[in-house]
Amino acid sequence: MRHLIPVLALVASPLFADQIDPSDVSALPSVDVLFLGELHDNPWHHENQTKIVAAVSPKAVVYEMLTPEQADRVSPDLVQDQERLQDVLAWNASGWPNFSLYYPIFRAAPLVSVYGAQVPRADVRDAIMGQDLAIGFGPNAAQYGLTTPLSEQEQAQREAKQFEAHCNALPEEMLPGMVLGQRLRDATLAREIERALAETGGPVVVITGNGHARKDWGAPALLTSDISQRSVAQFELAPKGDQPFDYWVITAEAAREDPCLAFRKD
């Protein structure tokens, strides 16, 4: 029998839910898998993730930011030393935000089994260029939806999201490939979550961006139906309309340069 997260339940609709207060983030339901979304560079999002991980004591944590090879290097002894862990993970070369944002999450559960679900850049590039997703993913691609084309409506919605996420600056012909890359990442994350659950018995906490935590087409939608799950998104501004998460939290905005500057010409 699986171990479940032993914390208080909150009421939420099956797919779309409303805002909860940051003080409620530790009062989450007992499930096999808990997705904790984030904006990668927001320190308050990582602070909330750290509190939840400490509160629920998962058996495994799956990081979108780590490859399986990196995750295998993590040990309880290494987690005690931030600089050593950062070096062993070669974090500074990874392209992710400063390791100081993520390190408290590791420290919150030093004995936990760590899993990584980052897709190699070459595989993402091949997917974006239109390579068959099953080639980059490997066996069981059909199980994770990678051999089935999206409906026209969902394809259009996903392309619109990619266009918006890239400052409305990507050429239209690039958008289908960007969707393929996202689908490959979602499927890889779901596969690693199921492996973590099978090997540890759970509960499993997932540290990932909000987009991968969507219940309609992100990694949660790809898990088998017998796996109980909840998804928490974190935003800086109140989103409009229904949100494809069980819960969502509003935090302060992170200090950052305009991310769209890179897309603007002088």
Question: What are the main properties of this structure?
Answer:
single chain; 266 residues; alpha/beta; Rossmann fold; 9 helices; globular; Cofac_haem-bd_dom
Summarize the structure.
The chain is α/β, with parallel strands linked by helices.
As a percent range, the share of helical residues equals 25-40%
Q: Whole-Å distance between the termini? A: 60 Å
> Could you say which overall geometry the principal axes of the C-alpha atoms support?
globular
Name of the level-1 CATH class: Alpha Beta
Query: What is the helix tally?
Result: 9
Structure class: alpha/beta
pLDDT < 50 runs, ≥5 residues: 1-16
What is the domain total for the residues? 1
Round the mean pLDDT to the nearest integer and report it.
Answer: 91
Strand order of the largest sheet: 3-2-4-1-5-6
Number of strands: 6
Strand content: 5-15%
CATH architecture type: 3-Layer(aba) Sandwich
Assembly state = single chain
Radius of gyration: 18 Å
SSE order = EHEHHHHEHHHHEEE
| Main β-sheet description | 6 strands, parallel
CATH topology type: Rossmann fold
Please provide a written account of the structure.
This protein starts with 32 loop residues before the first strand and ends in a 16-residue tail after the last strand. The longest helix has 26 residues, at 175-200. A six-stranded parallel sheet has the order 3-2-4-1-5-6. Helix 1 (43-56) packs parallel to helix 5. The protein is built from nine helices and six strands. 39% of the residues are buried. It has helices spanning 43-56, 68-73, 76-79, 82-88, 99-108, 121-128, 133-137, 152-165, 175-200, and strands at 33-36, 60-63, 113-116, 204-207, 229-235, 247-250. It is an alpha/beta fold and 266 residues long. It has a single domain (22-263), classed as Rossmann fold (3-Layer(aba) Sandwich). It is 35% helix and 10% strand. It is globular, with a radius of gyration of 18 Å.
